[in-house]
User: What shape does this take?
Amino acid sequence: MNIHHFLLLLGLPATSLIAQGNNPFVFFPQDPERQTITSASYVRRPDWNLQAEGFQELAASWFRGIGDETGTCMVRGFFHWAADENIATAETYGIILRSADPTGVIDPLVSGEILRVSGLTTPTAPGGPRGSFVMNDFFATPVAVPCTQSWFMGIDFPANPAWPTTDGHSLWSADIAGVSPATFGENPRAGSPRANWAVRPIGTFFANGWSNILGVRVDGPTLHVGGLDPTNSRQGLGLPSTQANIALGGLFPDVSGLPRADGLNLRIQDNVATQGLAFVAGSLVFGPIPVPFPGLSGQFHLDLSLTSILGFGTLSGGALDFPLFTPGAISPAFVGISLCFQAAVVDPLTGGAAFTNAQATFL
Assistant: This one.
């Protein structure tokens, strides 16, 4: 697998670099391309300074159609924020995508590898010693991933005994409350599943209590459900909180009223149709099979018989926050219900249109 390697030192604008793989699908409380990151708890590695692979889970019950290009889901690169304790020296890492085993958990075996690219390195730069880079690795050949089955995206870290005291590569992470003393980070409801995993070289794996700024790059627009908790100080923006958590807070909000009564919105992102018109749909479930629509790239992953059109909105600078429910508007009687959402973005300049991925939220 050949890699086209691009980077931006943090502090420079993270612009789209090539025509394909324009959109990173990142699972993190904030949009790293457009929002100031104030929810990062620490920089972390999947298993401290030992060799390990670190993954974001993309469960089939949570997401469908990431990278859908009208019937085949393709990823065209990888995006991550690399923290480096000494930017004068290069750090080695790999990109790895894994499938799930028959029980739905990560497959740690060689047979579970969808893609492995080894021997990549971070750049060097004067200054520091500490610094961070926005890394964009583009695949010369796109890689097929499951459209309707679970899979995992991540980075392979070699052992580095110098980390964190003097040198080493790590990831910007947002911790779940109770995992660490961090006051900033993720904001799911108590008892929610963890979605970040580490795989050790011996084949054992375990869950981590955080999310990372990393993700695959895809052609189509992306969609995330955002959780609106006005008491959420973990976003680091003061109270009341008006910026949705578009990672675990949106996947697992709290509408119980004990004590939270979260609202919901959707965040739709597209680095191509930056002023595009987004049409939003919702359903109680994903569809039994994806459905293509003439003239649209990608497929529709919601159940057509249970789908309602929720409205439309215009992207600004490549993003749209589409309101669904204000905080307190969802009755506690809906605890245990899941909802699914998907959008289509029309580019007014070209007339092209593409579906986003679909995502569920679990009330």
Q: What stands out?
A: The two ends are 41 Å apart (CA to CA). Residues 1-18 have pLDDT under 50 and may be disordered. Residues 195 and 242 are 24 Å apart (CA to CA). Helices lie at 248-251.
